Structure formats: structure tokens, C-alpha cells
Write the C-alpha cells for this entry.
Amino acid sequence: MPNNDGQPGSIRDLPATRSAAPPNPTEVVRPNTTFRQEIPPQLDLAEETRSRHSQRSADNLLIRANYRMQDRVRHPDGGRSSVEEILQLEKEARVHIEDETRRGSLKHHRFSRVVGWIPILVLVLDFCILLYFMAGVTNVNWAAPLSVALAFALVLASMVTSLTYGFLVFTGHRMRTHKNHAGTVHLDDLDGFTKTAFGSAISLITALALLMFIRMRTEVLNALGPQAGITALVIPLSLAVVSAMANYMVVAIHALDGSDQVARLNKLSAAGRRSFTKAQRMRERAAMYPRPLSPVRCGSTSMPWLSAAIRLRYVGLSAGPGTYPSTPTQNRAERA
């Protein structure tokens, strides 16, 4: 028995123990991954077939869109050109207009859309008024209006209205060619033909106003008789002035609304609009087709890129609970 100096149970009676080694900081404890099973690479034939069909359909649409851009359409200046050439000319015209506008030019200034509809409104009202006047001339019986007299009145009203409106628009366009960068048209700058057209337009407007005055004065006298007095003068004169101002506005709006360059730009835009719209719709349909996606790795499994729900279910069944499919970012990190 060892000598413990009479101290039973002393620490010297215990057997020597081996001290534990300090943990190695460089050692990485790997989690137990024995539950992950190796799945051989699988190829989803149905998904591949659908992907190829979508890709082929998208390519066909893009080819058709490219051919639509090669369609030859009517050029505003005469002849025919491809849609791509029309779009290039439209771009150059827009750059020219924007450059002059940026430098302070008012030549290309456009009126509001409401003002642009005024000539159409004047055209409709003139037709209705002239139809009423011509119906009185041809003695249309309004109790039974469907007659030869009404047809003749329609022909006369249509002829006078269309020719008048067309000549006023022509005069406005002729004056627009002499519009300066201040946004105005001076009579001194007009050429001889334009001055003649403008003078003829003023004479035509005066004749229509005089017709309005005479016809309305007759209507007032027939309605009020000898008691009309000053009313038989004021009402017809007011309507005649309104008619003259309305027709003069037709000339002014067409002369001052925009410029010849803006009008040409509008024609270029309209020339290739139909084919360009078809091409854009084809490109949009092609972009909506699902693209073939690159495969991703889930652990050691290579599989097609399925939707999130399908991948979650597929990988969850194969890898066990608590395992989630890896994302493209994680895949790139794994490959790195």
C-alpha cells in the first residue's frame, strides 16, 4: 500500500489521467449528410420538347418580324421604300426639327388637339347650313323629305362644301411654306401664286358670309314680318360675321399649325406604321415565349430549371426533409 502519510483518500491514490488535447481551430466539423442520396442525372424529355418548340416558335416570329421591316411601302415623296428606310428618314426629320426647336425656332410649333379639330367642325356645320339653304332653293317638302329635291340639295351642298373647304385648306398649306422661325406668315413674303390663292380665299369667304346674311335675313323677316325692325339686320349680320371668321380660321390653322417639315414627319410615320406595328407585335409574342433555361445543381444532382414549386417538391422528396433547392447564386458559389 502506498504511503499517503496517513491520509486515506488522498489525491495521490487516484490513477493518473490523460489530459485532453486542445481543439484544432483549422478542423472543420462537417455535418452528417448521410441522408442525402445520390440521384443519377435525369433528362426531362417533355420539358426539353416544350422548350425546343417554344424556341422554334419564337425564332419564326422574329424572322417574320424582320421580313415585315423589309416591306416596301408608299413613300410620301413618291415611289416606294422599305420600312427600315422610312424609319431612318423619320428619325432624321425628327432630329432636324428638334435641333431647330432647341435653338429657339417657333416654326414647328403645333396647336393643341382641340384647335386641330376646329376645321372639321367648320366643315360639318357649313354642310348642314348649306343643305338647309339648298333645300329651300329646291323646295324640299320636310313632311316627306325623301324626294328628288332633297337628293339634288344634298349634291349641291356637298359640292359647295367640299370645294370650298378644299380650297381653304390648299391656301393654308401654300401659306405654311412661307412660315418663318418666328412662327408667323407675312404677306410680303408670299409669292405671286400664294397671294392670288389667298385673295381668292378671302373672296370666297366673303361670298359665303353674304349668302348667310341674305338667307338669314329672309328667315327673320318671314318669321317676324314687318315688326322685325333692327332684328332683321343684327341677327343676319352677326351670323355672317361668325361664318366668315370660322372659314378664315380654317386657313389660319392650316397655315400656322406646324410646318412643312412636321407635315412630312407625320406622313413618314404613317407610311410605315402598319408594317412596323405588325413587326412589334411579333417581337412581343416572341419575347413572351419561355426561354430555355440552364440546368442547376441541387447537391450532386443536375436537373433542368423547373419552377420553384416543382423543384422544391422534387428535391425535397429526394434529399429528405429540411433540404431546399439551391438558387443560381448558390450554384455559382459552388462552382467557384
Remarks:
- The longest strand covers residues 72-74.
- Residues 6-12, 293-336 have pLDDT under 50 and may be disordered.
- The chain has eleven helices and four strands.
